[in-house]
Amino acid sequence: xxxxxLTGRTVALTGSTGGLGAALxxxxxxxxxxxxxxxxSLEAATAQAQDLGGETVARGWHADVxxxxxxxxxxxxxxxxxxxxxxxxxxAGIDTMAPMATIDPSAYERVIDINLNGVWRTFRAALPHxxxxxxxxxxxxxxxxxxxxxLQASYTASKAGVWALxxxxxxxxxxxxxxxxxxxxxxxxxxxMDDVTADPAGRALWGGNDRGLWKMVPLQKVISxxxxxxxxxxxxxxxxxxxxxxxxxxGLFRPILERLGxxxxxxxxxxxxxxxxxxxNPSSQxxxxxxRVR
Length: 294
Description:
Order of helices and strands: EHEHEHEHEHEHHHEHHHH
CATH topology of the largest domain: Rossmann fold
Number of strands: 7
Helix content: 40-55%
CATH superfamily of the largest domain: NAD(P)-binding Rossmann-like Domain
Strand order of the largest sheet: 3-2-1-4-5-6-7
């Protein structure tokens, strides 16, 4: 398969100053990509951009994945600055660790909003720009999309949701030549994982993540796998590769069903008929807004 050459392309990345984001940004820059770095802290993103070569090749923007309008503005400014956006990576994410019975509901909702809704907002803001160049959208999910641990309902649900969201959006964009992928690394060392291993509940569940089934893999292995996946415009990126069967098993027959059930001419026609409100029948909207039906 022909590699998707990253040289001269512009990559936008949310959560750019996090453990994964920072390492991924450096690897992409080494491949010759220009970088639009999106983070909650403009100061940190700007310093990161300077470290990666300055504004001609890397520039930072404030962006909050909970704010669609802000993301749209940041994407527009980045596209104007670099002249194009080819690849957008939804990398912002958080975690919690507590059982359903005791977790603060707002903590649960925040994880879902950032990890799942934030990916949707990022893709929505990016699409007009990426579509022009038949580019590629990538969401950072996790092996937690397929292996569901206790005390992490918000995290596993959000990551499984990201996997499903990417599969669905890929079908919507297939006829436009835009690729959509999800990345699913196992445990690897980041500040977020430092919190997990330091937490008594986390140590009880995963034993410190230094041996056995839950052993962490090197960060560089994760970065290498993701960059290779981007260069292949992969639908699914799994790190380490031996876990691919675990990841693919739930969707083993999905490609067949997609081809048979959603033909190329059907999806664009359905898109053209869809209402922005989600329903053409106002009474249907009213029933859903009031919660009278499921």
